[in-house]
Amino acid sequence: MSMLRTLPRSRFVPALGAAWVVAWVAPAEAQSGTPDQDSPALSSGPYAANFNADMPSLVWRQQVRAGLGGRLEGVRLVVTRASPSSATLRIRAGTSDAPGPVLAESIVHRTQALDEPVFIDVSGSAIELSAGQTFTLELQGNGSGLWVLGSNAAPPDPALYPEPLFLNGIAYFEAHARIGFTTFMLTGDRCAADLTTSSDPNDPAYGVPDGMVDASDFFYFLDQFAGANVAVADLTGSSDPNDPAYGVPDGAVDASDFFYYLDLFVEGC
């Protein structure tokens, strides 16, 4: 079974914009965040492609670079082929060639007969991102027949999303192929030190902000700090407010992050 399917390409490259046929019209959905990164999911046209998220032996890693700072609310994919079907989506720290720990994991379910947009909510995983920070969408099938729409631009035209796609740990041989997705960020006047409602990991409100800063937030941060969870506890490259790296995550969890969070905690909301 093939890994990627594309429609035959014309000799002539269509103009960008209206000439691309998007796979779906987005319905009203539950997410409230701001759309951030968008990699087109195309069902027709010269750049249309769909990716095999059926075979368990295929592990796709699509790199994403956040454009907005805030909490990752979720990811929207457009799924196709067999119905019902499903696959596993993992969100990892780091890059596609050097992925970090799993920050969130969820099952992507397909239930409709047509190409189906599916929103995967990961807001409860408290994935805090800075503008420019990379992370990875990892897809792996379970043999139920799920495929995911995306794009495959014809060189010399650029890829329709600039970040790379890897398959089984290697840069995908179709250099301009990309899995389609839209990410949503929770931004605005959020309180940086407000991380949770409860300090009990078994409470559904664990990792869900409640609009105030109290001891629960402090103990929640300690849990994430002890677990070296870079998505939550990597807050800064320096504990010195006069350092340009202050408040800029550096990919590591260390004492600077602890003291930086103390500053946030004392500041409150």
Secondary structure elements and their pairing?
Elements: E1 4-6, E2 21-22, E3 34-39, E4 42-44, E5 48-52, E6 59-65, E7 70-81, E8 85-94, E9 99-110, E10 116-121, E11 128-129, E12 134-141, E13 146-152, E14 165-167, E15 170-171, E16 177-179, E17 181-186, H1 215-226, H2 230-233, H3 255-267
Antiparallel strand pairs: 1-5, 2-4, 3-17, 5-13, 6-12, 6-14, 7-10, 7-11, 7-13, 7-17, 8-9, 8-12, 13-16, 14-15
Helix pairs in contact: 1-3
Tags for this model:
269 residues; six-stranded antiparallel sheet; globular; mainly beta; Jelly Rolls; single chain; nine-stranded antiparallel sheet; 17 strands
Span from first to last CA? 54 Å
Structural class comes to: mainly beta
Please identify, by name, the CATH architecture of the largest domain.
Answer: Sandwich
Average predicted confidence as pLDDT: 86
Characterize the overall form: globular
Description of the structure:
- About 9% of the residues have low confidence.
- The protein is 11% helix and 36% strand.
- The chain is built from 3 helices and 17 strands.
- Strand 8 and strand 9 form a beta hairpin.
- The N and C termini lie far apart (54 Å).
- Strands 1, 3, 5, 7, 10, 11, 13, 16 and 17 form a 9-stranded antiparallel β-sheet that branches.
- By secondary structure, the protein is mainly β.
- Helix 1 packs antiparallel against helix 3.
- The protein folds into 2 domains: 168 residues, Jelly Rolls (Sandwich), CATH 2.60.120; 81 residues, no CATH class.
